[in-house]
Amino acid sequence: MPHFTEDNVQRIIINPFYAITVASQLTEEHEPAMGEAEWVRANTSLMEEMGAERWLRQLLDVLEGRSEAPDEPVNPYRAVNIDPLFATAHPALIERDMWIDVNVMQLRNMGAEGWLRQLLDVLNGDIVTAEEVGFAPPGGTFGYGTPGRSHPQRRRIKKRKKRHHR
Known about the structure:
Elements: H1 6-14, H2 36-50, H3 52-64, H4 96-110, H5 112-123, H6 130-133
């Protein structure tokens, strides 16, 4: 029987995979230019200036590689290694506008900082699996990849490194 926790639902709603395919160059392993906390602070301020809807549209454009300036502050690549799974070609499961509308509401519910931290965790691979919510036997996919290529359990406790930037 399927079982969704509040955390599962939040990670599903925030996950941009359902609306877009992330540009493959953003999933390359790298040393992030800034720490996660710094990125969250910068984008909390940016979101307050721009408004949530405009910020979310810019985020999707950056993630899809449709932005003129990939080094802009909204780019989460600057703070985390985005899981290569997000660059897997797939049809969108929901329209961009629906993802944006739902996440504008989710931002109000969670607050910008909490939402941004959760986004970074999801992009770093902390996704909801079909197994986790009871939709599939162990090793099943939940809209990701193909059978036989999935990771049996993606949820993990993330070790955070303290980064000191000059």
